[in-house]
Amino acid sequence: MPSRPLKSCAIKPLGAAAAVIGLVAGGGALEGAVRIVPCASTEYTASIGDAATKAQGPDRLTLVLVGDTGFNPKGEPVRPEGFQKDGKAVGFSESLSGVAREVDGDLAFVNLETVVTDRNDLTPDSKGQTSPYNFKSHPAGLKVLIDTGFNLFSLANNHAMDYGANGAEETLYHMAIAAAERAIAYAGIGANFEEATRPGCLEAGDMKMGFAAIGIITGQRPEHRAGQDKPGQAGYRNEKDFQLVVNRLAELPADYRILSIHYGLEGRVVPDQRQLRDWRGYAAGERGIDLIVGHHPHVAQGVERAGDSLIFYGLGNFLHPGTAEMKRFGICRDYGLMAKVHLAKLEGDWKVGAIEAIPLTGTHMKPERFAPEQSMQRIFALNYLGARLGDGATSQGVRFMPRKDGSGLYCSQGAESLGGKVGALCAGFRPAPAIPTKLARHLQSACADKPFYGASQKKRRETPSFLGFGRR
Fewer CB within a 10 Å sphere, N or C end of the chain? Predict the structure, then answer.
């Protein structure tokens, strides 16, 4: 079966698809959520309707963030009804049923670490490896994600090209079909290099949210890097590619900008020098990107505020049958992180009012919350990592107040006076307490800086210095 024709539609819907999008509402799954639509009148998105007729935008927004996501184990055929793992069949809706009600933001981000296709005749790409991991997921799984409330999709990662150019074409085709039905934005791969580095944009009233994505390319393989007339992605390890993606996002007319980065060493809970330099130093410090979300190590890393920017160095897994059951990796590595970032518009600028942190278990098949006591221990683990972030001057690690339901809460100074949801969340907020002594001793070992596959790999990685990000 020949591949579907690839059109120039990685971010902006064209023709009839654009007309359809103009007639539908996107956004969160809850009734009464802010109406989300594609941005009008920018060079990066199709013109939808008349800007003069738009309702005045909100002054509060909630962003939900989760990490690595797919819907199939390695090399398994795609099925429209769901996936199979460990001899058990799981429907797509069932796989998300444990967390669906938590996806209650106006905007919700996910890293889609898979090729999206309904075909089982695609040839897997070896990626130069003897036993590669190749992931593909049926578009019915994508639909369930969108129906659950997700509307920001990163496509830039080391599995985007698992089935070569044909797989990339499939993903772009199905993302375009989805965008014709609901208001979503996706970024990170494209029919050519311009599309692969182009940011997306969504609107809530007169508020514009810009979004861009970049990720690692397995082995820096040139055939996976997008070209002038070749599908693919930009490579995070290529400094010029990274800066171009950041700069295009920074120059996009938008009120708030989100950058997704797929990078890291699997199992490492501590960001390396490259993350500190590129994310804190360049994207946040020099270019003023508001929110940076990281993923790929499959474990949660710490959270940091750098000036007015917010950085999640690693969100861990969300839902991916191609990944392992994480319990065996211990308290600092056995959870994925769902975050809810509550924004408030103050004097014309969007600021972080509060952050909720929700540790998730079962990310290899059916994510759900931990029992409250177990969840609190993971919040303390996240705080342990956060306490080791910050440069002592312009950036500080974020630490969360554990709550009775096991989630963590961080509130900006004065957030309790903002009223509404943020004010209610922060009414009883207190700074994070000290980690209990016995747990703190355990975390010293559990959160040691090491990858999944042995300390011998440690020399391949720059040792982080938390007193500064260094310069290029």
Answer: N
